[in-house]
Write a structure and sequence with these properties.
Blueprint: E1 2-4, H1 40-47, H2 51-67, H3 79-88, E2 99-103, H4 111-117, E3 122-127, H5 130-142, E4 149-153, H6 156-161, E5 171-177, H7 182-189, E6 193-203, H8 207-220, E7 227-231, E8 240-246
Parallel strand pairs: 2-3, 2-5, 3-4, 5-6
Antiparallel strand pairs: 1-4, 6-8, 7-8
Helix pairs in contact: 7-8
Bound molecules: S-adenosylmethionine.
Amino acid sequence: MTYDATAGVSGPGGTPPGPSPVDPSTLPSAQDAALPPELAEAARTLFGDRLDLAAAYAELLATDGVVRGLIGPREAPRIWDRHLLNCAAVAERIPDGATVIDVGSGAGLPGLVLAIARPDLHLTLVEPLARRTAFLIEAVQGLGLTRTVRVFRGRAEEAAAGPGGGDPLSADVVTARAVAPLDRLASWCLPLTVRGGRLVALKGSSVADEIAEHAATVERLGGGEPTVYRCGVDVIDPPTTVVEIVRERVVGPARGPRRAKRRGGRSRGR
Ligand SMILES: C[S@@+](CC[C@H](N)C(=O)[O-])C[C@H]1O[C@@H](n2cnc3c(N)ncnc32)[C@H](O)[C@@H]1O
């Protein structure tokens, strides 16, 4: 596990080996990441004057991201609607100047997209896999986001415990997309959230079933009632569905069965 507060460089030769060599004729091109004209208005609304930066990230995903096996080749032509716009819409749920931890960032979704759309946020991208964090570090540097984004290599549970015996990571908002079912997500993400802060999980159409199944566990973990919001209404179609859970109570780690207390207070050694 490494804690990279400055999004340090993965220099030439420093990148772990990716998948086996690819036939150059099948390599994705920057063309695949071109913003489709029908999405241009939504992209301008969501990224404003950072649209060029979003386009640079789209290109990186569609080329390097595909070659290094971080996203599937079939995703390249869908990068804007399924990934960038879908994730950027969630920015409306995040308060000004908030600290944000994105758990299971993968290739930077939604964390890097939020950093691009919202320069007022401070983000930590939490991702355990070396190949992915190498890509993230390079992307953060290449896109000029080192002032507001850092990359933590490790699992959410390790970040919450305090990396290398240091301070635990925490943030006002913890985001996650396509990482785990709601019960596991809450157990990983609520400990990373400040009290009164919230988990914002991007979910699909079956979110109501997931909430029904896991609400009791979420409550036990100190979470409030899960609430569903639709983001980007009238901007993207379909809007992005998120479920939010406020960390209402700080619950300690699970303990074993309680021992019966002795009468008369603490026991004395004999
Ligand atoms: C299906 S990918 C989704 C990546 C990205 N969020 C997206 O939407 O494209 C799930 C990611 O979660 C990461 N992950 C799995 N368990 C994790 C944990 N306990 N803590 C942090 N990340 C985790 C995986 O390494 C993987 O990159």
